[in-house]
Amino acid sequence: MPRYFISTSDGFQAHDPEGIELPDPEALARMMRKTLAAILADEGTEGGRNEFWADAHDERGERVMTARVNLSVAMP
Known about the structure:
Shape: elongated
Helix content: 25-40%
Structural class: alpha+beta
Number of strands: 5
Order of helices and strands: EEEHEE
Largest sheet: 5 strands, antiparallel
Distance between the termini: 49 Å
Protein backbone atom coordinates (compact mmCIF):
# COMPACT_ATOMS: atom_id res chain seq x y z
CA MET A 1 0.00 0.00 0.00
CA PRO A 2 1.45 3.42 -0.91
CA ARG A 3 2.58 5.79 1.84
CA TYR A 4 1.80 9.49 1.51
CA PHE A 5 3.22 12.45 3.41
CA ILE A 6 0.92 15.45 3.82
CA SER A 7 2.20 18.98 4.29
CA THR A 8 -0.20 21.74 5.32
CA SER A 9 -0.16 25.50 5.44
CA ASP A 10 -2.52 27.78 7.29
CA GLY A 11 -0.14 30.64 7.92
CA PHE A 12 2.17 28.05 9.49
CA GLN A 13 3.64 25.16 7.51
CA ALA A 14 3.67 21.64 8.92
CA HIS A 15 4.94 18.36 7.47
CA ASP A 16 4.03 14.83 8.54
CA PRO A 17 7.35 12.92 8.74
CA GLU A 18 5.69 9.52 9.33
CA GLY A 19 3.17 9.52 6.51
CA ILE A 20 0.03 7.46 6.13
CA GLU A 21 -0.67 4.36 4.08
CA LEU A 22 -3.72 4.66 1.84
CA PRO A 23 -5.00 2.21 -0.77
CA ASP A 24 -5.66 4.58 -3.68
CA PRO A 25 -5.90 8.22 -4.88
CA GLU A 26 -9.57 8.43 -3.88
CA ALA A 27 -8.66 7.60 -0.27
CA LEU A 28 -5.91 10.23 -0.41
CA ALA A 29 -8.40 12.83 -1.71
CA ARG A 30 -10.76 12.02 1.19
CA MET A 31 -7.88 12.39 3.66
CA MET A 32 -6.89 15.74 2.13
CA ARG A 33 -10.49 17.00 2.49
CA LYS A 34 -10.63 15.83 6.12
CA THR A 35 -7.28 17.47 6.83
CA LEU A 36 -8.39 20.83 5.43
CA ALA A 37 -11.77 20.59 7.19
CA ALA A 38 -9.95 20.07 10.51
CA ILE A 39 -7.70 23.06 9.85
CA LEU A 40 -10.71 25.23 9.00
CA ALA A 41 -12.50 24.07 12.17
CA ASP A 42 -9.47 25.01 14.28
CA GLU A 43 -8.03 27.99 12.44
CA GLY A 44 -10.77 29.23 10.13
CA THR A 45 -12.02 31.75 12.68
CA GLU A 46 -8.66 33.50 12.88
CA GLY A 47 -8.74 36.86 11.15
CA GLY A 48 -6.38 37.50 8.27
CA ARG A 49 -6.06 33.88 7.19
CA ASN A 50 -8.12 33.00 4.17
CA GLU A 51 -6.08 30.49 2.18
CA PHE A 52 -5.38 26.98 3.43
CA TRP A 53 -3.73 24.14 1.54
CA ALA A 54 -2.39 20.64 1.78
CA ASP A 55 0.13 18.91 -0.47
CA ALA A 56 0.62 15.15 -0.58
CA HIS A 57 3.97 13.64 -1.55
CA ASP A 58 4.79 10.02 -2.28
CA GLU A 59 7.70 8.08 -0.81
CA ARG A 60 10.02 9.48 -3.50
CA GLY A 61 9.14 13.02 -2.43
CA GLU A 62 7.13 13.79 -5.56
CA ARG A 63 3.98 15.84 -5.12
CA VAL A 64 1.00 13.73 -6.15
CA MET A 65 -1.96 15.85 -4.99
CA THR A 66 -2.77 19.38 -3.84
CA ALA A 67 -5.92 20.58 -2.12
CA ARG A 68 -6.69 24.25 -1.49
CA VAL A 69 -9.44 26.18 0.23
CA ASN A 70 -9.91 29.92 -0.11
CA LEU A 71 -12.29 31.33 2.46
CA SER A 72 -13.59 34.87 2.43
CA VAL A 73 -16.17 36.45 4.68
CA ALA A 74 -17.76 39.76 3.77
CA MET A 75 -20.37 41.90 5.40
CA PRO A 76 -22.99 43.59 3.20
